[in-house]
TrEMBL record:
Keywords: Signal. It holds the Pfam family GDPD. Residues 32-338 form the GP-PDE domain. The keyword Repeat does not apply. GO terms for biological process: lipid metabolic process. This is PLC-like phosphodiesterase. InterPro entries: GP_PDE_dom (IPR030395), PLC-like_Pdiesterase_TIM-brl (IPR017946). GO terms for molecular function: phosphoric diester hydrolase activity. The lineage of its organism: Eukaryota, Fungi, Dikarya, Basidiomycota, Agaricomycotina. The keyword Ligase does not apply. Residues 1-17 form the signal peptide. It comes from Rhodocollybia butyracea.
Length: 371
């Protein structure tokens, strides 16, 4: 049995956790958790397999991604509730005289996988990410396809995963239900070679509660920001699975940590900033993740992994506060900072092998779409 003292001193300094809380290989992970947000969208078009390929090459510890569920119940790797024109373009209907065509602008929940996989989502560079590499013609993949690609590039199964359910508890007709997400995602999780490497995260904490009820072995991460933590006309936030922050004691940081702990979350994943001013060197800057939040979460036995941290000045502050991981659009830059701060970083994956797996995957995906 691994002692709690060992875990505190050598694995997660400042965090008291026990082997029962996390799968053994996660407890023994010796690397600081640099998470590639949407595969590292600052570097490569988001949530597509090329992005995850470069995240492996850049030495990310964890691949962070989003899931949607299609009309026919397929779990896809995609962030938005709908197909946005800024990211994707139509190439043609899935079948002749399809009444749903064009698909751009439609909700994922109202489209089939066959319809979605006609879309070119690799050609458009996002204006906010001018260094983003594009991969014209690349289509949205299923979660199973992504696992298959990474298995080729990661035959030793070293990579970790942080997988989000994109459920909308306010506009309930825009996504599939929490029950659909949890059941369909869980089925894929437990039948994948990465079963014990997956963290399940969501802003809609109902899905976290449901996943814990279904399978306590899967760590859950409670996403939260100013919007989802706020009360609505003095009503409980629909995002927090019935929790009210004002039911707890302390400052905002302590309230957020206590609410996440109350639903059994293993990890607290708060937004990094709570102001329009985003740099700590400016007087108007206001963080959402605070030292008191980190300290209180640690006292409750949770890890803290803020998002989406793209400024090194913010990251330096968070590292000073002893966060356990950082979710970033630039995993290569964050890894370098973490290394400079004498924190252990995950090894990079062999570029030649990863790109060969990517080449084979893209060739296979193209042939399937053209059938």
């Amino acid at each position: 049995m691994i002692s709690a003292l060992f875990l505190r001193l050598f694995v997660f300094p400042g965090v008291l956790c026990t082997p029962s809380q996390y799968p053994l290989q996660r407890v023994l992970s010796k690397y600081f958790d640099v998470q590639a947000h949407r595969g590292g969208r600052g570097n490569t078009v988001e949530n597509l397999i090329p992005a995850f390929a470069w995240a492996l090459i850049d030495g990310a510890t964890t691949l962070e991604l989003d899931n949607g569920v299609t009309k026919d119940g397929e779990v896809i790797v995609w962030h938005d509730e709908n197909i946005v024109a800024e990211k994707c373009q139509d190439t043609g209907p899935a079948f002749v005289d399809d009444p749903d065509f064009p698909y751009v602008g439609k909700y994922v929940a109202n489209l089939t996988l066959a319809q979605i996989q006609t879309l070119d989502c690799g050609s458009k560079r996002q204006l906010n990410f001018p260094l983003q590499s594009v991969y014209p013609g690349t289509t949205i993949s299923t979660l199973t396809e992504l696992f298959s690609f990474v298995e080729c590039a990661d035959p030793d199964y070293r990579i970790l995963w942080n997988i989000e359910s994109k459920v909308n508890p306010i506009e309930t007709n825009q996504t599939r239900s929490p029950e659909d997400f949890v059941s369909k995602q869980h089925e894929i999780f437990v039948n994948s070679p990465y079963r014990h490497s997956i963290t399940y995260q969501s802003f809609d904490w109902r899905t976290l509660v449901s996943m814990k009820t279904l399978d306590r072995s899967i760590p859950t991460s409670a996403l939260i920001d100013l919007e989802t933590s706020a009360t609505y006309d003095n009503e409980t936030s629909p995002w927090l699975a019935g929790q009210r922050l004002d039911a707890f004691e302390g400052d905002l940081g302590a309230l957020v940590a206590s609410a996440a702990h109350a639903i059994g979350a293993d990890i607290l994943s708060p937004a990094d900033v709570a102001s329009l001013v985003v740099d700590p060197t400016l007087p108007e800057y206001k963080p959402f993740t605070t030292r008191s939040m980190v300290d209180h979460a640690h006292k409750l036995g949770m890890l803290v992994k803020p998002w989406t941290v793209n400024r090194l000045s913010v990251a330096e502050q968070l590292l000073d506060w002893n966060v356990d991981g950082i979710i970033t659009d630039y995993p290569n830059m964050m890894r370098r900072l973490v290394q400079q701060r004498n924190r252990p970083v995950a090894p990079k994956y062999p570029k030649k092998r990863v790109l060969e797996c990517l080449k084979r995957h893209l060739k296979k995906a193209t042939s399937i779409v053209n059938q």
